[in-house]
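Duplicate of #3305? Posting structure anyway:
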């Protein structure tokens, strides 16, 4: 089956805190709080599969699209939150994430706004006979199609000269 023929099918949407609990703790000798995520028990079966996910905030729109395997979704989403909150310590902070994070934080948004993020997930099972590399390539091609359509600000392919599903509020609504 060609990538152009793949139908994404049903997606599932979850509020961020239906998947994760955030635990904040002080770090000895370091300013600020360290965030850590604890995966909730009894997760919906869909989020434990491979697929494509998109991060959405009602004020910011879709700002990231990525691939998750059934084995790494928690770690990937955790790194994205660290990047969003400019607390990335172990993963390279991509320039587009850094730019978005700066705008997000300077507009008055922060960790408490994770409650407004929705994770839209498209479960995509591998086909019989797909080896891991073929499956990864297939997911990458699907991701590229979605990113080209949405042009989300945190993806490396983001082009600020093109229409985007990402919005950039100058200030959090209802703040002085």
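Output from current build:
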């Amino acid at each position: 089956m060609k990538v152009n023929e793949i139908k994404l099918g049903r997606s599932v949407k979850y509020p961020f805190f239906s998947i994760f609990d955030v635990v904040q703790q002080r770090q000895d000798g370091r300013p600020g709080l360290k965030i850590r995520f604890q995966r909730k028990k009894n997760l919906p079966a869909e989020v434990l599969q491979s697929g494509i996910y998109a991060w959405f905030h009602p004020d910011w729109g879709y700002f990231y699209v990525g691939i998750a395997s059934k084995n790494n979704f928690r770690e990937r989403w955790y790194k994205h939150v660290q990047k969003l909150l400019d607390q990335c310590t172990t993963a390279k902070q991509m320039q587009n994430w850094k730019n978005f994070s700066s705008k997000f934080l300077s507009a008055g948004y922060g960790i408490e706004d994770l409650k407004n993020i929705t994770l839209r997930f498209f479960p995509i099972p591998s086909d019989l006979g797909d080896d891991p590399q073929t499956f990864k390539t297939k997911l990458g091609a699907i991701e590229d199609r979605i990113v080209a359509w949405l042009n989300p600000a945190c993806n490396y392919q983001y082009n600020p000269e093109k229409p985007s599903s990402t919005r950039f509020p100058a200030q959090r609504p209802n703040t002085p």
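Confirmed duplicate; merging threads. Residues 132-150 form the longest helix (19 residues). The chain has one domain: 3-150.
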